[in-house]
Amino acid sequence: MRATGFAAVCTALLLLSGCSAEEKPAAPPAGDAAQLASAAGASTQKARSSKVSVETTADDGRKVMVTSSGLYEGPNSKFSMVAEVDGEKRDLIFSDGVLYYHLSEAQVLELKTDKEWVKISADGKDAVSAANGKLMAGVVEAMDPTRTIERISKSGKVTQSAQADLNGTRTTHYTLELDGAPAEVWLDAEQRPVQVSLGKATVKYDSWASDVVIIAPPPEAVGEPVSR
C-alpha cells in the first residue's frame, strides 16, 4: 500500500509540474549557422503552422503585443493577427503578400468609407499606412520563422549554444550574430522554434502543426487607401 501511495504521489507531482518521463531531450546543438538553418527549416516546413505571439516596442515608444496564427509556406506564409498597440486592439491579416488592416468604427467615419478593411504597406502614403504600416510590416517579418531561418542561412553566425529549459520546454539555445546584430533562438526537440529574440522583438511559438486556415478579406470588403 505504501508503494502504491508513493507512486500515486509521484504521478500527481509530475502532472502538476507539467513534466513527463517520456519528454524528449533537447536536440544536439548544430555545428554552425548553416546546420541550424537547415534543421529548423526542415522542421518548420514539416509542421507548417503554429500559434505565435510577439512583444516589441515601436520606434516611437509604443508598446506592441501581437497574437497570431501562422501558416508557413515560404514566400506565401500567411498570418491572422490581433495587434494591441498601446492598449488599442486591431485585427490584421497577411495573405498573398498583402497586409490587410481592419478599420475601427471611428476610422470608418473618419475615412468616409463603407469598407471594413484597407490594405496597408510600410511605405504607403495613406493615413493608416503612415500610422501603422512600417510597424506591422516589421512585426510580420519578425514573426515569420521562414524569413528568420533564411536570414540565418545567409548571414548568421552561431557564437554560442547550450541546452536550456525554457518555460518547461527542453530546448537548444543559440546565441547568434545576425546581419551584424545579436539574436537568440531556442529550438525544441523537433528543431522547431520555441522563441526568437531579434532586436526589440521577442517572438514565441507554440501549438505547432495546429489546424490553421487563413483567408484574405473578400475584395468587396476592402477599400482603397486614402491619402493624408
Which descriptors would you attach to this protein?
5 helices; disordered N terminus; 228 residues; 12 strands; alpha+beta; outer membrane lipoprotein receptor (LolB), chain A; 29% helix
Structural features, described:
It is built from five helices and twelve strands. With 228 residues, it is of the alpha+beta class. It has a single domain, classed as outer membrane lipoprotein receptor (LolB), chain A (Clam). Strand 8 and strand 9 form a beta hairpin. The radius of gyration is 21 Å and the shape is elongated. The termini are far apart. The N terminus is likely disordered.
Number of domains: 1
Give the overall silhouette: elongated
Overall SS class:
alpha+beta
Number of strands: 12
How many distinct helices?
Answer: 5
- The mean pLDDT is 88
Order of helices and strands: HHEEEEEHEHHEEEEEE
CATH class: Mainly Beta
Low-confidence parts: 1-21
> Beta-strand percentage?
35-45%
Helix content: 25-40%
- Spatial order of the strands forming the largest sheet: 7-8-9-10-11-1-2-3-4-5-6-12
The CATH topology: outer membrane lipoprotein receptor (LolB), chain A
* Cα gyration radius (Å): 21 Å
What is the CATH architecture assignment? Clam
